Amino acid sequence: MRSPSGAGRAAALVVALSAAVAAPPAMAAGTKLFAAVVEPRCVEAGGTGIAFSITLTNLSKNQQLGSANVRLPDGFAVTGGVALVGASSSATASVSGSGALIELRDLRILPARSVVASWVGAAGPVGSDGRFGVAAKPSNDFTGSTAFTLDASASQLVSSVDCRLAFVVQPSHALVGETITGDPFAPSSSRQVSVAALDGSGAPISSFADAVTLSIDPSHDPGGTTLQGTTARAASAGVAAFDDVHIDVHGFGYALRADADGFLPATSTTFAVADAGTVCGPRAPASTCSAQTVVADELNGAVGAVASTVTSTGGPAGGVVIVGANTHEVDCAGYVEHTDVTITFDVTTGEAKTVTVVIDKALVQADPNNGAAHYQVCYSSPTVLAEDAFGNPVAFFARDGSPVYPEGNPAGLVPTSGLLPDCGAALPGMPCRVSSNKDRAGNEVLVYRTPAGDPKGRV
Description:
The chain is mostly beta strands. It has 1 helix and 39 strands. The strands form 13 sheets. Strands 2, 4, 6, 7, 10 and 12 form a 6-stranded mixed β-sheet that branches. A 4-stranded antiparallel β-sheet has the order 8-9-5-11, with no helix packed on it. It has a 4-stranded antiparallel β-sheet with strand order 18-17-21-22, with no helix packed on it.
């Protein structure tokens, strides 16, 4: 079968042939049962040249199964001959109804025995119900009123459109070389990154037991590296779990991709891989927890002494939130300082840094305006990186394009703090905001860059 797992087939559509699970009906004495299983479980919608098969098993105690009709789903068709394995030497297979009906005769299947009919065919388009129909009789020529009864619990005859993978536990932020789990900076978390096989309705395919392979999504690989650890796992009850995958190059905006033969691939949400990091949640008023903020040297991966304190001083401030405050006062017009979260850190002075701040979900929910767009970085710096229109030294240009002057400048120019512009709008080498998003757990994740030469990270 043709697999849509390659990058060039990302838009391919597939059809799942999954088990029809139902409680078997109450059977009268002497009821003759049979089972039917269609393969493959997943095929590309509209695909051609696909190898199909149906296995018929006689579950009766003392009655042969002589003949059967197999009706294909709407849009499916037999395009090649039908071959039989396990049937009598006189058995025949013919196709009618423009390739939509397979007639199997003189099968002579004894109790507890099976016959496999296989053919090459085409799958239906998106929207096909994908339901195979099977009828069987004791007579070899499909005559008479006596019929076998399908045992639905032992059969697999129903197909679904868009068989696909989905992350059911998304990867979260991790340190370089440490196991990526569903919780940020928690390599020992029991919430392993997990991928499920789903049918077209979004329901899990619990019978799926094939291998799922993880890799770094090529479009979300800021470190230009490969995923390490055991990257291929067999699914159990339809879910593949990964307990030791890690990335050895820091970067912000990684995403994982999951692939399995015959399934549309899945791409995870993005996450950071940092040289140092933690999440420090809210505490009781006036209490402090020691932590490390996410700091990564973009040039060579080295960081200097990293020290950070996250302090809770009571309920969060109202209004739009500024992340953090340094040891000095900051004043960004129209924004309210987030007094719960004070972040300072010292890093090596000669390299550019990327910093990720993770604000606990509980703090985010307590803010009246807690959309990701409301979170900005109020920044100050003693470093001169540009000049204004009058030749005065400028630390950086704020979001509105106005100059922000170096703190402690002898001319007393103001302002000395301001909101960072987004990186796409910032001049090269200047501090800027990379992104502001909510992760899957509801935490606010704000990423910004500080320039080479700035002796202290400042927010």
